[in-house]
Write a structure and sequence with these properties.
The complex is a heterodimer of chains A (309) and B (318).
Chain A lengths: L1 H27 L5 H5 L7 H10 L6 H13 L12 H36 L4 H15 L2 H15 L13 H31 L2 H8 L4 H30 L2 H7 L4 H10 L3 H29 L1 H5 L2
Helix pairs in contact in A: 1-4, 1-13, 5-6, 5-8, 5-10, 6-8, 7-8, 7-11, 8-10, 9-10, 10-13, 11-12, 12-13
Chain B lengths: L1 H4 L16 H4 L11 H9 L3 H18 L37 H37 L1 H16 L2 H11 L6 H28 L2 H8 L4 H13 L1 H24 L10 H8 L8 H28 L1 H5 L2
Helix pairs in contact in B: 3-13, 4-5, 4-13, 5-6, 5-8, 5-11, 5-13, 6-8, 7-8, 8-10, 8-11, 9-10, 11-12, 11-13, 12-13
Chain lengths: 309, 318
C-alpha cells in the first residue's frame, strides 16, 4: 500500500510541474509589458519601471522567473488579485461555498442518475428506457449556460419556485437550483454507466442463483444487482467531484453563487489577466490533488487496484 | 438432374453442391465484395432513423453555414434600427429583434458558419495531433511512448475550458475563429491520442500484424496499411463527439467574453448579449440557444449511432 501511494504521488509530480509550466509559459508569452498596464495612459518614469521590473523579477530569463513562481506556489503564494487581496484569502472565503455546491450537485446526480439508470437497465428496450436515453441525450446536447438560463427562466421567473440568484451567505435552499443545473451535465453519463452495468450484472450467474434460491425482486435488485453494478459508477462519481469543483465557473457566474467559480468568472469579465491565471492555476492544482486523493481512496477500498500498474 | 450426372466420372461419391438443396443455402459468390467493418456499419446505419435525422440536421446547419443567403436576405449586422429594439416578430422577421434592433433569425443563420468552422478546425487539429501522438506512442512504444503519454497527461489534466480561458486571455488582441480553434484544439487532442493508442496496442497483437512482419513488410507500412485502418473506428466516434464539444466550448468562451469579438457573428455572443434581458425578453436568448443545442445534438447523435454501428459491444446494449 505504502509503495502504491509513493508511486502514485511520484507520478503526479511531473504532471503538476508540467501544468504550472504550461500556464506560466502562456502568461510569459503574453504580448506587452504587464507593468505598463499599471500606469494607464501615462508614460512611466524609466527608473521606476526598472525598479519594478527588478522587484517582480521581470528582467530575469524565463526559467528563472518560472522558478520564482513555482517556489512561490509551494510556499502557498499564488499571487494577489487586482484589488490587492491575496489569492489564498479569496480562496478561503469562496472555496467552502463551492464545496457545498459541488457536494449538493454530486448527491443530486448520484441519486437521480443511479435510480434512472437502474430502472432503465432492468427494463432494457422498454418505454422508460428509451425515454430516459432520449432525455439524457438531450441534456448532453444542451450547453450548461443554456440549461442555467432555462432553469432560471422556468423555475425562477415563470414558476417562482426558486430565487434566480443566490443570496448572501449562500443558504442551502438557494443552492438547490444551481446544484441541479450543475448535476445535469454528468447525469446522462451516470445513467448510461449504471444502465450498462446493470444490464451486464443482471445476466450473471449469481443473480440467477439468487432468484433460484427463491429470493424476491425486492431483495435481488438492491442487494445483488445494484450493489455489484455500482463499481464503475462510484469511480466516475469520484473523478467527477474534481470536475464539479473546478467546472462551476459558468453556473456560479450565472446564479451569482459567491464561490471560486464566480470569482474567476468576474475576473474574466473584467479582463484581469493575472487574477485569471492565478485562479486557473489554483483550480488545476485542486483538480489534480482531488483526483490523486480519490485514486488513493480507491486503492484503500479496492485492493485489486493496488496491483494493477 | 439426370442430364447433370451423365458423363461424370465414377470417382464422385458426394453429390455435387449444385444438385443438393445446400446449393441455395450455401452459395458463396466469388464476385461479391467481402464483408468488412465499414460495410457492416453502413448496413446497420442506413436503417436507423437517428442516423438520418442527425445527418439531415448536420446538412441543414452546414448549408446555412456555407450559403446563409439561401435562408435569409436580411443582413445580420446592418439594417439594425434601435426603434426595433427587443421587438417581437413582424412580417419578414419571424423571430423578432435583438436589443440593438437586429434581425434574430438572420443572426442565427449567419452565426452557423462560426460554430461549424470552429468545430471542423478543432477536429482537424485534434485529429492531426492525436493521430501523430497516438500512433507513435502506441505503435513504436518505448521511451517515446512514456514521454508522449506524460505530455498528453499534462494537457489532459487542465480542464479544457479553463485552459482555453487562459490562452484566450493571453491572446486577447488576436481573437479570431482560428485562434479560438487553436486554443480549444491544443487541449482536446490527448483524448484522441489516448483512444488511438489503446486501440493500436490491441490491434498490434493481432495475427495479421505478425504475418505482415513475417513477410518482411516495413514497420511504417505495417502501421499505415494494417494497423491504422483497423484502429481508426473509435477515433472517428470520439472525433464526432469532440466536434460537438468544440462547438459548445466556443459558445461558452464567447459567452464568457473571452471568445470571439462581439463583432463576429456567434451564437455564444448573441446568448451572452441577450442574458441581461432574460426577464423581459427571453426569446432573443432562447432562439440562438435552440440553434446551438440542435447543432450540438446532431453531432452527438451522429457520434452515438456511429459508436453503435462500429462497436459490436455497444450494439448489445441497445
Amino acid at each position: 500500500m505504502a509503495r502504491y501511494i509513493l508511486w502514485r504521488v511520484l507520478q503526479a509530480i511531473p504532471v503538476l510541474i508540467g501544468t504550472t509550466f504550461l500556464i506560466y509559459f502562456m502568461v510569459f508569452a503574453m504580448p506587452g509589458n504587464p507593468l505598463l498596464a499599471l500606469f494607464g495612459d501615462r508614460t512611466p518614469n524609466p527608473a521606476l519601471l526598472e525598479r519594478l521590473e527588478e522587484q517582480y523579477h521581470l528582467n530575469e530569463p524565463f526559467l528563472v522567473q518560472y522558478w520564482y513562481y513555482l517556489s512561490g506556489i509551494f510556499q502557498g503564494d499564488f499571487g494577489t488579485s487586482f484589488t490587492g487581496e491575496p489569492t489564498t484569502e479569496i480562496l478561503a472565503r469562496t472555496f467552502p461555498v463551492t464545496i457545498r455546491l459541488a457536494v449538493l450537485a454530486l448527491i443530486i446526480q448520484g441519486v437521480l442518475g443511479i435510480l434512472v439508470g437502474l430502472v432503465s437497465g432492468l427494463r432494457k428496450g422498454k418505454f422508460f428506457d428509451s425515454s430516459a436515453l432520449a432525455v439524457s441525450l438531450l441534456l448532453i446536447s444542451l450547453p450548461i449556460f443554456v440549461i442555467a438560463f432555462l432553469a432560471q427562466y422556468v423555475f425562477g421567473i415563470e414558476l417562482g419556485w426558486a430565487r434566480t440568484t443566490v443570496g448572501s451567505g449562500a443558504p442551502w435552499a438557494d443552492l438547490i437550483l444551481p446544484a441541479f443545473v450543475l448535476a445535469s451535465v454528468s447525469f446522462a453519463q451516470i445513467v448510461r454507466l449504471t444502465r450498462a452495468s446493470v444490464i451486464e450484472t443482471k445476466s450473471l450467474d449469481f443473480v440467477r442463483t439468487a432468484y433460484g434460491k427463491g429470493l424476491g425482486r425486492n431483495r435481488v435488485v438492491p442487494v445483488h444487482i445494484l450493489r455489484n453494478s455500482l463499481i464503475p459508477v462510484t469511480t466516475y462519481l469520484g473523478t467527477d467531484f474534481g470536475v464539479l469543483l473546478v467546472g462551476a465557473t459558468v453556473t456560479e457566474g450565472i446564479f451569482n453563487v459567491p464561490g471560486v467559480g464566480r470569482t474567476l468568472f468576474q475576473a474574466i469579465l473584467r479582463g484581469e489577466g493575472p487574477t485569471v491565471v492565478s485562479f486557473v492555476t489554483v483550480m488545476v492544482l485542486i483538480y489534480l490533488v482531488v483526483n490523486l486523493v480519490i485514486d488513493l481512496l480507491y486503492a484503500v477500498l479496492d485492493p485489486r487496484i493496488r496491483y494493477v500498474k | 438432374m439426370s442430364s447433370n450426372t451423365e458423363g461424370r466420372k465414377p470417382t464422385h461419391f458426394v453429390a455435387p453442391p449444385e444438385d443438393t438443396p445446400l446449393a441455395e443455402i450455401d452459395t458463396v459468390s466469388i464476385d461479391e465484395k467481402p464483408s468488412n467493418l465499414w460495410r457492416d456499419a453502413w448496413r446497420d446505419l442506413r436503417v436507423r432513423p437517428m442516423f438520418w435525422i442527425s445527418a439531415a440536421l448536420i446538412l441543414l446547419v452546414s448549408t446555412a453555414a456555407l450559403f446563409p443567403y439561401l435562408f435569409t436576405l436580411t443582413p445580420p449586422n446592418s439594417e439594425c434600427f434601435l426603434s426595433n429594439s427587443n421587438g417581437g416578430p413582424t412580417d419578414g422577421h419571424p423571430l423578432g429583434f435583438t436589443k440593438l434592433g437586429c434581425d434574430v433569425y438572420s443572426r442565427i443563420i449567419h452565426g452557423a458558419s462560426t460554430s461549424i468552422s470552429v468545430g471542423f478546425i478543432v477536429v482537424f487539429i485534434t485529429t492531426v495531433l492525436g493521430l501523430l501522438a497516438g500512433s507513435i506512442s502506441g505503435f513504436y512504444g518505448g521511451w517515446l511512448d512514456a514521454v508522449i503519454s506524460r505530455i498528453g497527461d499534462i494537457f489532459f489534466s487542465i480542464p479544457y475550458i479553463l485552459a482555453a480561458v487562459v490562452v484566450m486571455s493571453v491572446l486577447s488582441a488576436y481573437r479570431s475563429v482560428w485562434v479560438i480553434s487553436l486554443a480549444i484544439g491544443l487541449f482536446a487532442w490527448p483524448v484522441v491520442a489516448r483512444v488511438l493508442r489503446s486501440e493500436i496496442l490491441r490491434v498490434k497483437a493481432s495475427d495479421f500484424v505478425t504475418a505482415a512482419e513475417a513477410l518482411g513488410v516495413s514497420r511504417f507500412k505495417i502501421l499505415v496499411q494494417h494497423v491504422l485502418p483497423n484502429s481508426i473506428a473509435p477515433v472517428i466516434v470520439i472525433t464526432t463527439i469532440s466536434l460537438a464539444s468544440a462547438i459548445v466550448a466556443e459558445a461558452t468562451l464567447s459567452f464568457l467574453g473571452v471568445g470571439l469579438p462581439s463583432t463576429t457573428m456567434s451564437w455564444g455572443n448573441d446568448i451572452s448579449a441577450a442574458q441581461v434581458d432574460l426577464r423581459t425578453n427571453p426569446q432573443t436568448l432562447i432562439y440562438p440557444s435552440i440553434a446551438l443545442s440542435i447543432t450540438v445534438f446532431a453531432f452527438i447523435m451522429l457520434g452515438e449511432v456511429l459508436r453503435d454501428a462500429l462497436d459490436p459491444k455497444a450494439r448489445a446494449l441497445r
